[in-house]
């Protein structure tokens, strides 16, 4: 792992590359953007990142601000702050040419915001269980974060989580507690600047959005396809929000096809 300074924030970064297997297509640079609160780069490290590296791709993972081993400033958690970190990261790593962004949950929201901000630096986006940053999304997410922070004030919550879900999940929740109680993230998400809906029509970066068939977000797929000019959506039967962790064996070949075919064709799960 490497620590870099990006835009005044210390970001924890890991980069994987391996001897390519006989996978077709040229190697690509892929930047993996994780979700919010209980997530960090390890969710990729133990799911799709090794397979992408083994196929010859340059894989960049990083802990977003407030998460994992990156800096946790008390304020500055609007979507524009997270997408600014991504821009500074690409500068710090001196990555040449447009990169592919893969975003899980909130990570996909950050990837979309970044693509609208710097479309020339993005070759394509594949997002898993994600939404664009809209006013409705910001209000909903702020409420979820504030509710989670309130619930975690109850001293019975963490012991119950450990007993029910195990030590690993409890450790993730402890990290999330520090973020939710020690920063203004819920407030900042709720008041962050979001693009006007009509601005998304100007985003011509190709996007693939993957949803679990039983997820609450699955019904947004038709709207998303109408919102983004170059977007297609896929659903994974039998899975909800945790598509990445729940079925990496489905996600990996989909990603490899996406990178190989230049976003022209995708294999339906």
Automatic annotation (TrEMBL):
Listed A to Z, the keywords are: Hydrolase
Q: Which GO terms describe its molecular function?
A: aminopeptidase activity
Q: Which biological process annotations from GO are given for this protein?
A: proteolysis
**Superkingdom of source:** Bacteria
Domain (AB hydrolase-1): residue spans on this chain: 29-147
Family label: Belongs to the peptidase S33 family.
> What is the official name of this protein in its record?
Alpha/beta fold hydrolase
Q: Which organism is it from?
A: Streptomyces ferrugineus
């Amino acid at each position: 792992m490497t620590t870099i300074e990006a835009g005044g924030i210390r970001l924890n970064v890991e980069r994987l590359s391996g001897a390519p297997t006989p996978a077709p297509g040229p190697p690509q640079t892929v930047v993996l953007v994780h979700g919010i609160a209980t997530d960090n780069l390890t969710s990729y490290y133990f799911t799709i990142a090794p397979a992408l590296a083994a196929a010859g791709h340059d894989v960049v993972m990083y802990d977003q601000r407030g998460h994992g081993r990156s800096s946790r400033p008390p304020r500055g958690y609007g979507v524009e702050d997270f997408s600014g970190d991504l821009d500074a990261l690409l500068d710090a790593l001196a990555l040449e040419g447009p990169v592919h962004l893969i975003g899980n949950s909130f990570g996909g929201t950050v990837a979309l915001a970044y693509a609208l901000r710097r479309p020339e630096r993005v070759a394509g986006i594949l997002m898993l269980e994600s939404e664009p940053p809209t006013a409705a999304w910001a209000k909903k997410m702020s409420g979820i974060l504030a509710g989670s922070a309130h619930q975690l004030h109850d001293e019975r919550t963490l012991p119950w989580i450990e007993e029910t879900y195990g030590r690993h999940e409890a450790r993730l929740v402890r990290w999330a507690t520090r973020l939710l109680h020690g920063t203004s993230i819920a407030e900042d998400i709720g008041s962050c600047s979001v693009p006007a809906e009509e601005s998304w029509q100007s985003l011509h970066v190709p996007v693939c959005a993957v949803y679990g068939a039983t997820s609450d977000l699955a019904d947004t797929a038709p709207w998303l396809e109408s919102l983004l000019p170059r977007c297609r959506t896929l659903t994974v039967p039998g899975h909800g929000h945790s598509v990445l962790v729940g079925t990496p064996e489905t996600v990996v070949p989909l990603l490899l096809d996406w990178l190989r075919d230049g976003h022209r064709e995708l294999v339906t799960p």
